[in-house]
Amino acid sequence: MKIQNIIGPKIRRLRHLNGLSQDALATKLQLLGMAYATRSRISKIEARLIRVSEIDIYFLSSALGVPMEELYPSVLHASDNLHEVVQKLKKSRYGVA
Question: Taking the domain 8-91, which CATH number applies?
Answer without folding.
Answer: 1.10.260.40
